[in-house]
Amino acid sequence: MPKVVSRSAVSASTDAHPTASSAAALRVYYCLCGEFILVIDKSLSSLPRRQTDNAIIVRSQDSNDQKARVFKLNAKYADPILLERKDGHERQYRFNCPRCTLLIGYQHTPPPAKSSPFIYILSGALTQMQGQLPQDAFDGENN
Ligand SMILES: [Zn+2]
């Protein structure tokens, strides 16, 4: 049996400072390698998804009728790439796990995360259970 050591048990403190009212509902997500990546006020599975690539949409700026999600992202940005889409080109500023460099998600404007109206988290990139694969880890493998 591989031994899974929970690092959160060792260090209970975090540098995220959510408001008291949202603290109770915060969810923590990890990379498949176990690295802490995201803390957010809503479950990723309940957020809307993009039709193009099924990525999870996280609102990072308030709009007229919708509030931004409260979140903190621990990721490293890479150089932007240009994708061909049916209706034109799409520039993606991608971010990766700081430990294993697995691709986590992207946004359409330069970092930081909250300078963009939305960030997108790839389907199956993150898990709530440290050391366990998410159910949808292999979804869309043939795309
Ligand atoms: Zn990782």
TrEMBL record:
It comes from the Eukaryota. This is STEEP1 domain-containing protein. Pfam families: STEEP1. Belongs to the STEEP1 family. Residues 21-135 form the STEEP1 domain. One of its GO terms (cellular component) is cytoplasm. GO terms for biological process: endoplasmic reticulum membrane organization; endoplasmic reticulum to Golgi vesicle-mediated transport. Coiled coil: none annotated. It comes from Pleurotus ostreatus (Oyster mushroom).
